[in-house]
Amino acid sequence: MVCIQGALTVAYYSYVGFNATQKTGQKTSNIVQVIEFAILIINYRILLVTMEKLAISDVTLSFGGLKALSGVSLDIEPGLITSIIGPNGAGKTSLLNCISGFYHPTSGDIFYGDHKLNKASPHQVSSMGIARAFQNIELFGGMTVLDNLMLARHQNLSYNVLHAIVYFGKASREESKNRQYVEEIIDFMELEPYRKHTVGNLSYGIQKRVEVARALTLGPQLLLLDEPMTGMNIEEKEDTVRFIIDIQKERDATIVLVEHDLGVVMDISDRIYVLDFGELIGSGSPDEVVKIPKVIEAYIGED
Question: Is 49 exposed, middle or buried (0-12, 13-18, 19+ CB in 10 A)?
Answer without folding.
Answer: exposed
